[in-house]
Write a structure and sequence with these properties.
The complex is a heterodimer of chains A (200) and B (466).
Chain A (H helix, E strand, L loop, with lengths): L6 E4 L1 E3 L7 H4 L19 H4 L24 E3 L12 H9 L3 E4 L4 H8 L4 E4 L2 H13 L5 E4 L4 E4 L2 E4 L4 H9 L3 H6 L2 H10 L5
Parallel strand pairs in A: 2-3, 3-4, 4-5
Antiparallel strand pairs in A: 1-6, 6-7, 7-8
Chain B lengths: L4 H7 L2 E5 L2 E5 L2 E4 L5 H9 L10 E4 L16 H17 L2 E3 L9 H7 L8 E4 L13 E4 L2 H10 L1 E4 L3 E8 L8 H12 L7 E6 L1 H4 L3 H9 L8 E3 L4 H7 L8 H11 L12 E6 L6 E3 L7 E3 L13 H14 L14 E4 L1 H4 L2 H11 L9 E4 L4 H9 L2 H8 L2 E2 L20 E4 L14 E4 L2 H10 L11
Parallel strand pairs in B: 3-4, 3-6, 4-5, 6-7, 9-10, 9-12, 10-11, 15-16, 15-18, 16-17, 18-19
Antiparallel strand pairs in B: 1-2, 2-8, 13-14
Helix pairs in contact in B: 2-5, 6-8, 13-15, 13-16
Classes of the chains: A alpha/beta (200), B alpha/beta (466).
Chain lengths: 200, 466
């Protein structure tokens, strides 16, 4: 990861439902790739297309609505990203053009996968999400400012602060190579290994 | 302060403290074709090596055919992924059990079979059902591909400690009730996200009396309650299972290991962030009615109405789920016909699962309206089942007997359902489209699945127990 995440300004797409699982975000038939790219066109495949060959967009699915075209912030509800550990889910969201997902809560593995892909997951309270959904549904052109250093989401007259672990924030802002950082601790890892029992 | 099992395994693996995070050593890393290619590509781009190929083991399971041993049986894209795994393992010196190898199998079935999983270990895999291995008193959890790359390169992961949850299943199970019913009942009670941010320890008389395979079924579905991991403290049942397996310690190493493993239990007075109590005697054969595993009922209960849920989110989820599943509030599931039956997966693809399903299968024939497949979880399970004549029982009854793999649990191969199909499945996820776009999945135990195959509709397995 090279470029860091600081302040993001964009419009939001309101995916107003709970328990959006990673099978919905990117179904299994698209997991046969061997690269990290090209998953965006299959994002939300079952909901987004009326046919299997992705020729007929479903006009009723919120992501397809013209007023939300170009949105870079996805709004959702409880337990977003539950299910499979597939990192293809954040790859698909990012490749499609989302930089931020704001939801009531996230599944643990998905949350970590987002952090590792410069996709910022933000959890807000249920009432804050209600307000945000209301504002975006009332005005699809609403510009939302997500300020990671300040840990705030500003949407019109709504201002919310959010929590994020310091090292997650630091890694997102600096775009650090997590493996490179750990490799600097190789001698500490070697010391640990030397103390492990032989039968392991 | 009195420690939990989780505390003990965690503390034994902290390499370094990095602010609020710990650098955790990983004892065992299992890999498969779907979530590893990008990790190896990342290593190769930076000319990094696999730090401990001796701690890393690979298998092919997700995207393989269950009808043919040919690597390209499911098309060129699947074949490329499988060949990429083989090349990566060869280049980095990682032991691989490819399609057709006698030790190949679903990663969470073959790992324990080979003795690769030991009590007190930290175990990771790029697969959310890695929680399975917590059955041994290991700390085992699923990771994403970036983390797979991190473990390959460093044999460690940066982790923050989760909260702890104790789930006591008290008393004895009724006749015909299985581990699958216990875990579905637990998820039904605490909800699909009820254990998010927690590591669960399963305890109580009903858990203690389970075999290792049954404990694996329980821990496997911890993720379906949102948990980071699920664990069962090791005991004599655990040690007997591990002893003599290919990668298990031997001789004086075995004695030293067992002495350590006996210390791996939560101490009296240890506190948990959350405690859940269930009475085993209250658990009926479980069956999911909705589109997440928490939407589950006893087979004799009516399908709930959205209005039955006080929580607005659950109410809306129920409404959506009923529409997708083609069910109405008040329906009795034992009147609902099924078109497909799938017996297998990392949840229920072990020899005891095959035996439980065969016990039912020999009592009749698969209904004309049903396609039923049985997919053993590994080559070892397949051979054992065939030695016991279970394959013959299945095929005589009209079930298809397949080659080992993940198969219809997620349908990355050609074992997929069509829109409108309704499946009694022993797998772990009933999400919309999981087994095929528009297909409807009901999660059940192997015995319940076999019973549904014979009846052509869901049935109460307790009717078959005489």
């Amino acid at each position: 990861m090279s470029q860091g995440f600081t302040v993001h300004t964009g419009r939001a797409c309101p995916l107003d439902q709970a328990n959006v699982d990673t099978d919905q975000i990117i179904p299994k038939q698209f997991l046969t790739g061997v690269t990290r790219t090209g998953y965006g066109k299959h994002l939300f495949h079952d909901w987004r297309y009326l046919d299997l060959h992705e020729q007929e967009p479903n006009p009723d699915f919120v992501v397809n609505k013209p007023e939300y075209a170009g949105a870079s912030i996805l709004l959702s509800r409880e337990n977003f990203g539950c299910g499979s550990s597939r990192e293809h889910a954040p790859w698909a969201l990012a490749d499609f053009g989302f930089d931020v997902v704001i939801a009531t809560s996230f599944a643990d593995i998905f949350y970590g996968n987002c952090i590792n892909n410069q996709l910022l997951p933000i959890a807000l309270s249920s009432s804050q999400m209600d307000a945000l959904f209301g504002a975006v549904k009332a005005n699809a052109d609403l510009e939302i400012v997500v300020d990671l250093p300040a840990q705030t989401v500003i949407a019109g007259d709504l201002t919310f602060s959010f929590d994020i672990l310091a090292h997650h924030k630091n890694n997102l802002i600096k775009g650090l190579d997590a493996i490179g950082q750990t490799l600097e601790l190789t001698s500490t890892i070697e010391e640990f290994e030397a103390k492990q029992p032989a039968w392991l | 302060m009195a420690k939990t099992l989780y505390d003990k395994v965690w503390e034994a693996h902290v390499v370094d403290q990095l602010g609020e995070d710990s650098l955790l050593y990983i004892d065992r890393h299992l890999i498969h074709e779907v979530t590893s290619p990008q990790a190896f590509a990342g290593l190769n781009e930076k000319a990094r090596k696999v730090r401990r190929p001796d701690r890393t083991f690979g298998t092919m399971d997700h995207s393989i055919s269950t009808r043919s041993l040919a690597i390209d049986a499911c098309g060129p894209q699947n074949a490329l992924q499988l060949k990429t795994l083989a090349t990566n393992c060869e280049e980095h010196g990682v032991k691989l059990f490819p399609v057709g190898h006698q030790k190949q199998g679903i990663v969470h079935v073959m790992g324990p079979e080979l003795g690769l999983i030991l009590p007190g270990m930290t175990v990771v895999c790029g697969d959310s059902h890695t929680a399975t291995h917590g059955a041994f008193g290991a700390l085992a959890f699923g990771i994403g591909t970036s983390q797979v790359e991190h473990v390959l390169a460093t044999q460690t992961l940066k982790q923050s400690k989760a909260k702890s949850m104790l789930i006591n299943v008290n008393g004895k199970l009724a006749v015909g009730i299985t581990a699958k019913d216990i875990i579905l009942a637990i998820i039904g009670k605490i909800g699909h996200a009820g254990a998010t941010g927690h590591v669960i320890e399963y305890a109580g008389e009903a858990i203690r009396s389970l075999t290792m395979e049954e404990r694996m079924t329980i821990c496997n579905m911890s993720i379906e309650a949102g948990a980071k991991a699920g664990m069962v403290a090791p005991d004599d049942t655990t040690f007997e299972y591990v002893k003599g397996r290919e990668y298990a310690p031997t001789g004086s190493d075995w004695d030293a290991a067992v002495a350590y493993w006996k210390s791996l239990h939560s101490e009296d007075g240890a506190t948990f962030d959350t405690v859940v109590e269930l009475d085993a005697a209250d658990i009926a054969p479980q069956i999911t009615w909705g589109t997440n595993p928490g939407q589950v009922i006893g087979v004799d209960a009516p399908v709930p109405a959205p209005e039955d849920f006080s929580d607005a989110v659950e109410r809306e989820s129920a409404r959506k789920a009923l529409a997708y599943m083609g069910l109405s509030a008040g329906d009795k599931l034992d009147a609902v016909p099924v078109s497909h039956v799938f017996i297998g997966s990392c949840t229920n693809g072990r020899i005891e699962d095959m035996r439980a399903a065969a016990f039912i299968a020999k009592q009749g024939k698969v209904a004309d309206t049903v396609t039923a497949i049985v997919v053993p979880g590994s080559g070892a399970v397949k051979r054992q089942a065939e030695e016991e004549g279970l394959d013959k029982i299945f095929t005589d009854a009209g079930f298809e007997w397949r080659l080992p793999g993940c198969s219809m649990c997620l349908g990355m191969n050609d074992d997929i359902l069509q829109s409108g199909d309704r499946c009694a499945s022993t797998s772990n996820r009933n999400f919309e489209g999981r087994q095929g776009r528009g297909a409807r999945t009901h999660l059940v135990s192997p015995a319940m699945a076999a019973a549904a195959a014979l009846k052509g509709r869901f049935a109460d397995v307790r009717e078959f127990q005489e």
